[in-house]
Design a protein that fits this description.
By secondary structure, the chain is α+β, with helices and mostly antiparallel strands. The protein contains seven helices and 13 strands.
C-alpha cells in the first residue's frame, strides 16, 4: 500500500510485525485440574500477590525462584501462604536464602511465612559476616521464633505463649546458604517442618536426591499430615552440609512442589528436570511451577541455585 501525506509526498509503508504469540496456557501434567478464573484474596491480603519470581547471577552462582498460589487458595479467596527470599552476601559471594510455608490453620500464616523468611535471611547474612565457621542454625531459628512472638505481642498488646503465636503465624522454614569454596560450593541447610530440599543431577540420569527425609518417597512407610512448625524450635534441628558438584542444581521447595515431585521419577520430575537443566528465565520458572495436575492444589514455591562453572546461560 502506498501512503501520501497532505502535500502528496510519498511516505514509507508502515513496518509489518508478526502476529502476537498466543498466551501461555498452563502446562498439564497427567489429569488437569478444573480451570477457573482465580478469585482475589481478602482486602487485607493485598501485600501477598498470586505469583512472584526473581532471578540473577553472581560470579559463582545463578539463582532463580518462583512462588505461585495454589488452586485451593485461588478458589477460596485465600492469599498465597508460601514465601521465599534470597540475597547475596557481598564480601564472601555466598547466597543466603529462606523458603517458608505458612500452616493453613494459622490465622495469618502468610505473614508468618514472609516474616520468617525475612528474619532468617537477615540473621544468615549476619552470621556469614562472622567468618567461615558453620552457620549457627539453632541461633537463627530461635531468633525467628522470638520475632514471631514479638509480632504477636504487638498485635495483641501483651505477651503471647507459643501456642497463641502458632495460632497466628505458624510456618515451616528451610533456610541456609551456599558458599564458594576451593573444593566446590558448600551448601548448609536446616529445616523446621515438612518443606524440602533436593540435589538435581543434571547429567544423563537427571535424578533427584532428597537432602531431608521426604513424606512421599518410596522409603516412607506412613504419610502424616502433622507438621512441627515455628514458633516451635526442636531441640535437635534437621541440618545438612553438602558439597555442590558442577553438575548439580540445588532445589529448595515447599510441599506444594515436593508432594507432586515424589521420588522424581514421574511426569512432574521429568517436567522439572527438562526445564532446570539450565537456568530458565524467572517468568518461565513461575509458568512451569504453575502446572495443572488433578489433586495437587497447594501453593508451590521453588528456589534453585546452579554453580556457574559449566552453566551455559540462555
Amino acid at each position: 500500500m502506498t501512503v501520501h501525506d497532505a502535500s502528496g509526498f510519498r511516505l514509507p509503508a508502515p513496518p509489518s510485525y508478526p502476529p502476537d504469540p498466543a498466551p501461555w496456557r498452563r502446562i498439564v501434567v497427567g489429569v488437569p485440574e478444573t480451570e477457573f478464573e482465580a478469585q482475589p484474596p481478602g482486602q487485607q491480603a493485598y501485600g501477598f500477590p498470586d505469583t512472584e519470581c526473581d532471578g540473577w547471577s553472581t560470579t559463582d552462582f545463578t539463582l532463580r525462584f518462583a512462588s505461585v498460589r495454589g488452586a485451593n487458595h485461588r478458589y477460596h479467596r485465600r492469599p498465597r501462604q508460601d514465601a521465599v527470599q534470597a540475597a547475596v552476601h557481598e564480601s564472601t559471594g555466598a547466597i543466603a536464602f529462606a523458603v517458608a510455608d505458612g500452616v493453613s490453620g494459622a490465622a495469618s500464616s502468610e505473614r508468618g511465612a514472609a516474616e520468617a523468611c525475612r528474619r532468617a535471611l537477615e540473621m544468615t547474612l549476619h552470621r556469614l559476616s562472622q567468618g567461615p565457621k558453620p552457620l549457627d542454625f539453632q541461633g537463627i531459628a530461635h531468633h525467628v521464633s522470638e520475632w514471631l512472638g514479638e509480632l504477636a505481642r504487638r498485635l495483641n498488646g501483651r505477651n503471647q505463649d507459643p501456642a497463641q503465636v502458632a495460632r497466628l503465624y505458624a510456618t515451616t522454614l528451610v533456610t541456609g546458604a551456599v558458599r564458594p569454596a576451593p573444593g566446590g560450593p558448600v551448601v548448609e541447610l536446616c529445616r523446621i517442618g515438612d518443606s524440602g530440599a533436593w540435589l538435581l543431577d543434571r547429567s544423563n540420569d537427571h535424578r533427584y536426591r532428597p537432602l531431608f527425609p521426604s513424606k512421599t518417597g518410596s522409603d516412607t512407610l506412613l504419610v502424616s499430615n502433622e507438621v512441627t512448625a515455628l514458633p516451635h524450635v526442636p531441640d535437635s534441628l534437621e541440618q545438612i552440609r553438602e558439597r555442590l558438584a558442577p553438575h548439580h542444581a540445588l532445589l529448595v521447595g515447599t510441599d506444594g512442589f515436593g508432594d507432586p515431585l515424589g521420588d522424581g521419577d514421574g511426569k512432574v520430575g521429568a517436567l522439572f528436570a527438562r526445564n532446570l537443566t539450565e537456568p530458565p528465565t524467572p517468568l518461565w520458572l513461575a509458568h512451569v511451577l504453575d502446572f495443572s495436575r488433578e489433586t495437587f492444589d497447594d501453593d508451590r514455591t521453588l528456589l534453585a541455585i546452579w554453580p556457574r562453572t559449566i552453566v551455559a546461560e540462555r
